[in-house]
Write a structure and sequence with these properties.
Layout: E1 12-15, E2 18-20, H1 22-32, E3 37-43, E4 49-52, E5 55-58, H2 66-74, H3 79-88, E6 90-97, E7 100-109, E8 112-121, H4 127-130, H5 136-141, E9 146-151, H6 158-172, E10 176-181, E11 194-199, H7 207-214, E12 221-224, H8 230-241, E13 245-250, H9 255-264, H10 271-281, E14 282-292, E15 299-307, H11 310-317, H12 324-330, H13 343-352, H14 358-364, H15 368-376
Parallel strand pairs: 9-13, 9-14, 10-11, 10-12, 12-13
Antiparallel strand pairs: 1-2, 3-4, 3-8, 4-5, 6-7, 7-8, 14-15
Helix pairs in contact: 7-8, 10-11, 13-15
């Protein structure tokens, strides 16, 4: 007799006459689509909770207990990952189930075990799906070296934007692409590019070691999942300086804040050195948010784009970061060497197109007064 798939075992008594399996819990992603239903949170003492169109929705099911959540977690993690979870109190993983790749983080909090699950389409995102506000992506994929940062808060769509750019490079250029991810979220395929994807913790112990290895593996393009600390940031900047095109993500709310965050990672006595290094290696910063649409269900990406032209690089070098925002407001022409935009200008365009309501734009704007001026243009 064939063995029962653990994912199908109905181990969770969700209601008096209803038991659910992990597959049952994941079914809402399929029904709603991963663009709208993005996350599932399972936590001891709470019912399952989904993030739908950016908002958390608590279900009416019974709260989960520790034994039940332990059994559900074991359906998703292998023995090695479970051992890591118990030893380090958290673990990252990814797994393909049916039509989605799921990014998982299991961890412990004061009440016990918890699990955060994010759904990603197994199909690679296109440039059109991301929805850039201008043609700046063409300039990015044609770069031969330098650093491109995609920033935003958790759940802002950073991974999707970077995946679309890397996919376009792999589709159009005969080059060697190496990715360092924790965990791997999109699986790239190409007939003309060679793509090597390495998972932190499985294929390489950490970002620092992975980046050291990269420099000896003849890459043209490197994707570093996140610049999380001084070591990974130092090696990422070094790779960008030594003739490689490097993409990476970082958790910040806007373009100028990204530069500030990077400089703040280092001791004060190294600020000038790092600022000079960043002024030379940085090419673009895309800072993005996902905002609620008004024209149809779902969310749309809104972007702030900084192009490190000479005047911007000079501000970075001199650590006069307060002058950069005004440069983004003026270097907006649709031509290479320009194509900058502020978040507020991007929001104003979406409001005028009827895609986003003015109330929603005002809620997410970094500079509400600037948004008001942009809407009057």
């Amino acid at each position: 007799m064939a063995a029962t798939d653990p994912l199908s075992e109905k181990v969770y008594a969700a209601a008096e006459n209803r038991s659910m399996s992990m597959l049952d819990l994941l079914a809402l992603f399929k029904r709603g689509g991963s663009a709208r239903v993005t996350d599932l949170h399972l936590k001891v003492g709470r019912p399952p909770c989904y993030r739908i169109d950016g908002e958390l929705k608590v279900t009416s099911a019974r709260p989960l207990d520790q034994p039940t959540l332990e059994r559900l977690t074991r359906t998703l993690l292998d023995d090695t990952q479970m051992k890591t979870l118990h030893q380090h109190r958290s673990v990252n993983a990814s797994r393909i189930i049916e039509t989605f790749r799921y990014r998982l983080n299991a961890y412990y909090d004061i009440r016990g075990l918890a699990l955060a699950i994010r759904a990603l389409d197994t199909s690679l995102p296109s440039i059109e799906f991301v929805g850039f506000p201008n043609e700046v992506w063409r300039d990015m994929i044609n770069l031969s070296q330098g650093l491109v940062l995609v920033t935003g808060t958790t759940g802002a769509g950073k991974s999707t934007t970077i995946a679309a750019l890397i996919n376009e490079i792999g589709r159009t250029r005969p080059c060697h692409i190496i990715t360092l991810e924790d965990p791997i979220e999109y699986e790239f395929h190409s007939d003309i590019a060679m793509i090597s994807q390495r998972a932190i913790g499985r294929d390489v112990p950490n970002y620092e070691r992975g980046l050291r290895d990269c420099l000896r593996e003849d890459p043209d393009v490197i994707f570093v999942g996140e610049m999380t600390d001084v070591e990974s940031s130092t090696w990422t900047l070094a790779a960008a300086e030594t003739g490689h095109l490097v993409f990476s993500g970082i958790h910040t709310r806007n373009a100028v804040g990204t530069i500030t965050r990077l400089l703040d990672m280092y001791p004060a006595n190294r600020a000038e050195e790092v600022a000079n290094q960043l002024s030379l290696s940085l090419r673009y910063i895309i800072s993005q948010k996902l905002v609620q649409r008004q024209d149809k269900p779902g969310r749309v990406a809104v972007m702030e784009i900084l192009n490190n032209v000479y005047s911007v690089a000079n501000c970075i070098r001199q650590i006069k970061l307060d002058q950069i925002y005004s440069l983004m407001q003026t270097h907006t022409r649709e031509e290479p060497g320009q194509r900058m935009t502020t978040l507020e200008r991007s929001l104003a365009k979406l409001v005028k197109a009827g895609t986003v309501s003015q109330v929603e734009a005002e809620r997410v704007a970094n500079e509400p007064r600037v948004l008001e001026d942009e809407l009057k243009r």
